[in-house]
C-alpha cells in the first residue's frame, strides 16, 4: 500500500468511527448500550452476506464508489461479520429497477437514485433532487436536521416497505451534452434527451422528447444519434463515460439536480430482522458514503473539466430564457402533482418552507462570499 492509499484508508476509518459514534449516540445509547461495548457486541452477532444491486457501472469510481464505500464501511465496523457485495447495474438487476427489487424482497438492500422511480410515485424525487431545489449542503440540512428524512422514511415504509438513508451526493451537476447549440426554448423542440426524474418531465413541457437510460447506455445512444442530448453527472464521470467524444456542447448548470442525494434502500422486513447494532452500522456507513462521495466529486471535477475543454469541448451556459421557462414549468408541475398526490403535497409544503428559509440564510453567508470571489475571477 502506498502512502496515498494508506492515508485515504486511515481517513475513511476515522470518519467511519466518528459516524458510528454519531449513530451510537443517536440510537444505541438510547437502548442502554455504551459505545465501548460495540466491539464486544460484534463478537456475538450473526455472520451475514447480502448482495446489493446498484444503478451504476463499475467504471465510475465515484458514484459506484459510493456503494463500495458503504459496503466496505459496514464490513470494517462489524469486523467482517456483515458483508455487503455491491453489484453493478445490470449484473443482478437493471439499474433503474433497484427500488422495485428491494421492495419485492428479491434483494435485501440496494443503492440507487430515488428519482428513477417517479413513475411509482412523484414524491420519490425529493429523495434525490427536484429542479431548482436544494444544493448538496442544503439537501443534507433538510434531510438530517430539517425533518426531511423522517418524512420521507415514513412514506417509503408505508408505500414501498423500504427504509432508506442518504448515501452519496454528486453536488451541483452539469446541464448535459448536446450535439448542437441551444439558445432559446424553441431550440429544444423535438430534441431527444436522456434525463430522468422530474427534470425529465419539465424538459418534456419545454418540448423535449425524454428518455431514461442507465449510465452505461448513454454513450452509445448519443454517439449513434439515437438521442440528441444527455445528462449524467459532471466532468469527472462524464469524461469516464466518453461523452465528450459523442457531443461537442457542454451546458451548465444542471438546474434539475442542484444537489442530488443517492440512497441505500433496505427492505423493511429484512431491516426489522437485523440486530440493532447492524442497523446502526448501516446508518453510520451510509453517512460515511454520503460525505465521501461529495468530497470526491468536489475534489476531482474541476481538473476533469479542464481536460474536457482541452479536448475541444465547448462550454455553454443555459440562457436566461431557458432557465426562466424551466423554473416556471417546474413549479407549475409541483403544484399539479400536489393536487394529485397527497404525499407529494405534504412533502412539497414542508420542503418549500425549508427551501425559503435556507435560501435566505445562504444568500447572506454563502452567497455573499461566493459573489465576492466570482467578481475576482471575472
Oligomer: single chain
As laid out across the biggest beta sheet, the strand order is 7-6-8-5-9-11
Structural class: alpha/beta
Helix content: 40-55%
Query: What is the number of helical segments per DSSP (H or I, 4+ residues)?
Result: 15
Q: How large, in whole angstroms, is the Cα Rg?
A: 21 Å
Which percent band covers the strand fraction?
Answer: 5-15%
Q: Biggest sheet, open or closed, and with what strands and sense?
A: 6 strands, mixed
The termini sit apart by 43 Å
Total count of strands: 11
What does the model show?
The longest helix has about 35 residues, at about 275-310. The protein starts with a helix and ends with a helix. The protein is of the alpha/beta class and about 375 residues long. It has helices at about 5-30, 40-45, 65-75, 100-105, 125-130, 135-145, 150-160, 195-205, 220-225, 235-240, 270-275, 275-310, 320-340, 340-365, 365-375, and strands at about 50-55, 80-85, 110, 160-170, 175-180, 190-195, 210, 230, 250, 260-265, 315.
Amino acid at each position: 500500500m502506498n502512502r496515498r492509499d494508506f492515508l485515504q484508508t486511515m481517513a475513511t476509518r476515522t470518519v467511519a468511527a466518528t459516524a458510528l459514534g454519531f449513530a451510537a449516540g443517536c440510537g444505541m445509547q438510547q437502548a442502554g448500550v455504551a459505545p465501548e461495548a460495540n466491539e464486544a457486541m460484534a463478537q456475538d452477532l450473526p455472520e451475514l452476506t447480502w448482495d446489493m444491486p446498484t444503478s451504476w457501472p463499475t467504471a465510475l469510481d465515484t458514484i459506484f464508489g459510493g456503494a463500495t464505500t458503504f459496503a466496505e464501511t459496514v464490513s470494517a465496523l462489524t469486523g467482517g461479520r456483515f458483508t455487503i457485495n455491491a453489484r453493478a447495474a445490470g449484473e443482478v438487476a437493471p439499474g433503474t429497477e433497484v427500488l422495485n427489487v428491494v421492495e419485492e424482497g428479491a434483494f435485501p438492500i440496494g443503492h440507487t437514485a430515488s428519482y428513477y422511480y417517479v413513475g411509482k410515485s412523484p414524491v420519490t424525487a425529493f429523495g434525490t433532487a427536484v429542479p431548482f431545489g436544494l444544493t448538496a449542503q442544503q439537501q443534507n440540512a433538510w434531510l438530517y436536521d430539517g425533518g426531511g428524512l423522517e418524512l420521507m422514511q415514513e412514506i417509503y415504509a408505508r408505500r414501498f416497505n423500504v427504509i432508506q438513508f442518504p448515501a452519496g451526493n454528486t453536488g451541483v451537476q452539469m446541464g448535459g451534452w448536446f450535439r448542437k447549440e441551444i439558445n432559446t426554448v424553441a431550440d429544444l423542440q423535438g430534441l431527444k434527451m436522456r434525463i430522468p426524474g422530474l427534470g425529465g418531465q419539465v424538459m418534456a413541457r419545454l418540448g423535449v422528447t425524454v428518455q431514461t437510460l442507465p449510465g452505461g447506455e448513454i454513450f452509445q445512444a448519443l454517439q449513434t444519434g439515437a438521442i440528441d442530448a444527455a445528462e449524467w453527472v459532471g466532468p469527472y464521470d462524464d469524461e469516464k463515460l466518453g461523452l465528450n467524444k459523442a457531443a461537442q456542447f457542454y451546458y451548465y448548470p444542471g438546474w434539475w439536480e442542484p444537489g442530488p442525494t443517492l440512497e441505500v434502500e433496505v427492505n423493511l422486513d429484512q431491516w426489522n430482522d437485523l440486530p440493532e447494532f447492524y442497523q446502526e452500522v448501516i446508518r453510520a456507513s451510509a453517512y460515511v458514503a454520503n460525505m465521501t462521495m461529495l468530497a470526491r466529486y468536489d475534489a476531482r471535477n474541476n481538473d476533469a473539466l479542464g481536460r474536457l475543454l482541452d479536448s475541444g469541448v465547448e462550454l455553454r451556459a443555459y440562457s436566461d430564457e431557458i432557465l426562466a421557462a424551466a423554473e416556471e414549468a417546474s413549479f407549475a408541475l409541483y403544484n399539479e402533482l400536489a393536487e394529485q398526490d397527497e404525499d407529494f403535497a405534504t412533502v412539497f409544503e414542508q420542503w418549500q418552507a425549508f427551501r425559503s428559509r435556507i435560501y435566505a440564510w445562504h444568500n447572506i453567508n454563502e452567497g455573499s462570499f461566493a459573489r465576492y470571489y466570482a467578481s475576482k475571477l471575472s
